[in-house]
Amino acid sequence: MSWQTRAACRDTDPELFFPPSDDDTAPVVARHLSAVRPVCGRCPVQTECLTWALDTGQDVGIWAATTPTERRAIRRQRLAGVPDPVADREPACAACSLLFPVPAVDGSLCSTCQEKGA
Ligand code: SF4
Q1: How far is the CA of 80 from the centre of ligand 1 (A)?
Q2: Ligand 1, atom nearest to 64 Cα
Q3: With contact defined as beta carbons under 8 Å apart, do 62 and 32 qualify?
Q4: Is cis: bond before 85, omega within 30 of 0?
Q5: CB count, 10 Å around CB of 52?
Q6: Required co-factor (predicted)?
Q7: Phi-psi bin for 65: left (phi > 0), alpha (psi -120 to 50), beta?
Q8: Which residue among 49, 67, 98, 117 is least crowded, i.e. fewest CB within 10 A of its CB?
Q9: For residues 113 and 2, what is the distance between their CA atoms, to the nearest angstrom?
Q10: According to the model, what pLDDT value does residue 99 have?
């Protein structure tokens, strides 16, 4: 995986990307996502990362700012023939280029940028 050498998370604590829960509603997962999203948001290989995580069925951890639950939803949509952010390279946040985890997200900014008022 040569793209990993360009990953923005290369020097980040790997434990940040592996919360001790798979429950997206758990506060600990939200804290990990808050810490990880800015890193993934400036990562030049976010698309490659998400593609790899989806194609290899990564079912634990945060990859390209997506949780296992979000990636399962994307995989289900792929199987159903629904366009996905990897295939279309869309939609992405207009401010930070973070890929939206699922294509149905409204608006042009990711939640982090919306919170910042970007
Ligand atoms: S998108 Fe996030 S998890 Fe993936 S390589 Fe980049 S910084 Fe790491």
Answers
A1: 26
A2: 1
A3: yes
A4: no
A5: 17
A6: [4Fe-4S] cluster
A7: left
A8: 117
A9: 29
A10: 62
